[in-house]
Amino acid sequence: MKKLLGIVVLGLLLSVNAFAETWSCDNDRFGKSMYEVKDSEIVLTFPNNDARTFKITKDQRQYKISVYGEFSNKQTNFDYDIYMDYGDKYVINRTLDALSGFSRSYTDTNCSIFN
Question: What's the start-to-end Cα distance of the chain, in Å?
Answer without folding.
Answer: 33
